Amino acid sequence: MNEIWILAESKSGHVAPVSLELLAWARSLGKTGSVSVTAILPGPAIDPEELCYFGADSVIHCPSEGLSGFSARPLAACLSALLERRRPSVFLAAATTTGRTVLPYLAACEGLGLTADCTELSLDPETAVLLQTRPAAGGNIMATIRTTRGKPQMATVRPHSRRPLERDPGRTASVEVMDFHEAPGAAPPLGRDGGDSPPFPNGGLLLVEERPFESSRGIADARAVIAGGKGFRKKEGFALLDRLAGLVGAEVGASREAVDRGWADYPRQVGLSGRTISPELYIAVGISGAIQHLAGMQTSKTIVSINSDPEAPIAAMSDLAIRADLYEFIPALMAKLAGYRSADGVEA
Amino acid sequence: MKIAVLVKQVPETDSLTLDPETGTVVRSEDSSIVNPLDLYALEAALRIKDADPETSILALSMGPPQAETALREALAMGCDEAVLVTGREFGGSDTWATSRALSAALSKLGGFDLILCGEKATDGDTGQVGPEVAAFLDLPVLTYVGSLSLSSSRKEAQAQRIVEDGSQVLRCRLPMVMSFCKAIGEPRLPLLSGKRRAKAAQLRSFGLADLGLTAEETGAKGSPTKVVKVDRPRLSREATFMDARTEEGMDKACDALIALMLEKGLIVPSAAVAGATAARTQP
Ligand SMILES: Cc1cc2nc3c(=O)[nH]c(=O)nc-3n(C[C@H](O)[C@H](O)[C@H](O)COP(=O)(O)OP(=O)(O)OC[C@H]3O[C@@H](n4cnc5c(N)ncnc54)[C@H](O)[C@@H]3O)c2cc1C
Ligand SMILES: Nc1ncnc2c1ncn2[C@@H]1O[C@H](COP(=O)(O)O)[C@@H](O)[C@H]1O
User: Could you tell me if B198 and B190 are in contact, meaning their C-beta atoms sit under 8 angstroms apart?
Assistant: First the structure.
């Protein structure tokens, strides 16, 4: 039996959606009975059992406030203490600002390798070797990596690179609550700043304030994204895109070329140096489909492209490739959409 | 105040070429640049020095001898000193081995209040080195810093950290390791005087023995991650092609996309249409 751990995260007191994706990854590594999946959930959260409904066999919940995401050191110390008790063969975290900070800290402390930002994982059922695949060199190549020294084999996994499993409330919820300070062997050396001495209880860091972005939902979790590229040729063209997206309740995305030209804001950039998204429907308009762009949207469920060049690489990545001039196509589409309205609008 | 900035030399990705046979990156010396994201860490350090001229900034890099060029650029921007960790034994280091060597150099140099690095390097693209260096030095780390201001005592700082859905404001006790993102502001360009100074500057270099490391602790030998395969991704789906250059083609293509939008539940027929349909189907 291969034991797999995932590092879950919480957001405003609830299990974060990205953690459910990690569970789907963990479950994909072997059949039930050949892998057991444990979710480690640091920080306060009211719904740890959700992790079981989405695929964990058990949850270790360490609810201490001090283990919330921003401070890597106490969290890494907590994870080290847990690894002291039991060593899984694989330990995965999401490649979020939290995962990409805590896991390297832990890897260095434990003398273990770590692969960043994987988009594919597979586990050899015999040898329990984890093959970790990630884009490298600006998305031009995919490198497959193994971390050979010691257990666990660790990787961070790119958000939205896999969909969560169906929620199954029939699964047994087994949640063990561990107050980190009482955990066996859990008095970590917090080094020269003395750990618990106020006003810096979190290993040198004190959270003063959190400021959420004000902007709209954005593309991160949108059901449909309509993205524009250099093919629009001018900023005014993007107003057309805004109108179309508004009509059908989609969010506007953009290629880097469009963002660099100031036609869309950076948070809307899709791709290697922007966001990785995985909507139900992705419509690429006037985007060629450079490898760095594909890296950010290739896991979308359905992809449609509108491009005047049938040879553009985006066409081969599409489920529906429409050869058209976007300035003819969008108005024609909007005229036909007159008989419909956005489903969101109906619900509201 | 003593600051160290970690600076990596990377191949310029925009001019990056692949060997069509092997699919590996062709590295040439003259297309190497300072990792663009490290310029933001340099800028953050230089702003501290602008406000407090007592500050000294050391640029540290690990790499082949030509990485000296990157360090001279850091000096030209305004750093005071530069150290290069170099030697054949360091070749093939992964982030663990790189961090091991860089942290050994930082311990040897000693006494830094802040150790700054970029969010990630554009070649390796991991962003792991900052937190790993912090762990080796047993220091706290703050990642994705977008702005920074120091207290008058220089023992504390207030930082803004950019995360997925917003930002966090944190008080930080120094010494600490921080990685910076673009939000810090545009990096300055080197002045001519800086360039001249940089050209004349003496760089120090550290080898394996200077750092008290063994060959087993660094380079390819000391690296726990191993690349087993490199592929050029081949991506494709079973595309349905539609040509919308004729009126009829346009009509069909629009209908196909609308059908998809309906199927995905994005849109519903508006009341008028639904009403009209209902009226038509009534006997
Ligand atoms: C390290 C690195 C990271 C990168 N990260 C990203 C990233 O995160 N995201 C990203 O998108 N890119 C990224 N890039 C850039 C990427 O390589 C491409 O340059 C970029 O994606 C191209 O944008 P585009 O498709 O809008 O423009 P182009 O490649 O110029 O494509 C424009 C397309 O529009 C079509 N077109 C033109 N006119 C019309 C018309 N009237 N009607 C219909 N179609 C038309 C053309 O046929 C063409 O296919 C990165 C590059 C590097 C080196
Ligand atoms: N060889 C190196 N020499 C100096 N600094 C480095 C080196 N490798 C990484 N860094 C620093 O660590 C940051 C993250 O790099 P990486 O983990 O490789 O993405 C970079 O932005 C640099 O500041």
Answer: yes
Q: How far apart are CA B141 and CA A70, in angstroms?
A: 9
Give the chain A residue whose CA is nearest to the CA of B178.
Answer: A101
Cβ neighbours around B82 below 10 Å, total: 25
Q: Which of residues 116-155 of B touch A (CB under 8 A)?
A: 122-136, 138-144
**Tokens standing for B84?**
């290069």
The backbone torsions φ and ψ at residue B72, rounded to the nearest 5 degrees and listed phi first, read -65, -30
Q: How many CB atoms lie within 10 A of CB A35?
A: 22
Find the CB nearest A342 among B126, B127, B267: B267
Q: Is B218 on the interface with A (CB under 8 A)?
A: no
Cα(B191) to centroid of ligand 2, in Å?
Answer: 25
Domain ranges of chain A: 2-193, 224-339
Name the nearest CA neighbour of B264 among A132, A282, A209.
Answer: A282
The residue contributing the CA closest to ligand 1 atom 23 is A257
| Chain B residues within 8 A of A136 when measuring between CB atoms | 123-125, 230
CA distances from A114 to A24, A130, B4, B57 (A): 20, 11, 25, 30
Instruction: Show the 3-state SS of B117-131.
Output: EECCCCCCCCCCHHH
Q: Please indicate whether, in this complex, the C-beta atoms of A283 and B257 are within 8 angstroms of each other.
A: yes
Encode pLDDT of A90-133 as tens digits.
999 999 999 999 999 999 999 999 999 998 999 988 888 999 99
pLDDT tens string for chain A (348 positions)? 899 999 999 988 999 999 999 999 999 998 878 899 999 999 999 999 999 999 999 999 999 888 877 789 989 999 999 999 999 999 999 999 999 999 999 999 999 999 999 989 999 888 889 999 998 776 667 899 999 889 999 999 988 788 899 999 999 989 999 987 644 333 344 333 434 434 455 568 888 888 887 655 678 878 899 999 999 999 999 999 999 999 999 999 999 999 999 999 888 999 888 888 888 999 999 999 998 898 889 878 899 999 999 999 999 999 999 999 999 999 999 999 999 998 876 433
Give me the DSSP letters along A256-284: HHHHHTTSS-GGGBBSTTSB----SEEEE
CATH of domain A2-193: 3.40.50.620
C-alpha span between A277 and B24 (Å, rounded): 27
Question: Fold for domain A224-339?
Answer: Rossmann fold (3.40.50)
Tell me whether strands A251-254 and A205-212 are parallel, antiparallel or unpaired: unpaired
Contact between B126 and A283 using a beta-carbon 8 Å cutoff: no
Q: Quick check: pTM over 0.90?
A: no
Q: What is the ipTM of this complex?
A: 0.83
**Single-letter code of the amino acid located at B269:** P
**Closest ligand 1 atom to A284 CA:** 25
DSSP letter string, B228-281: EEEE-------PEEEE-SSHHHHHHHHHHHHHHHHHTTSEEE-HHHHHHHHHHH
Q: What does the DSSP 8-state code read for residue B184?
A: G
Residues of B in contact with A98 (CB under 8 A): 163
CA gap B86, B91 in Å, rounded? 9
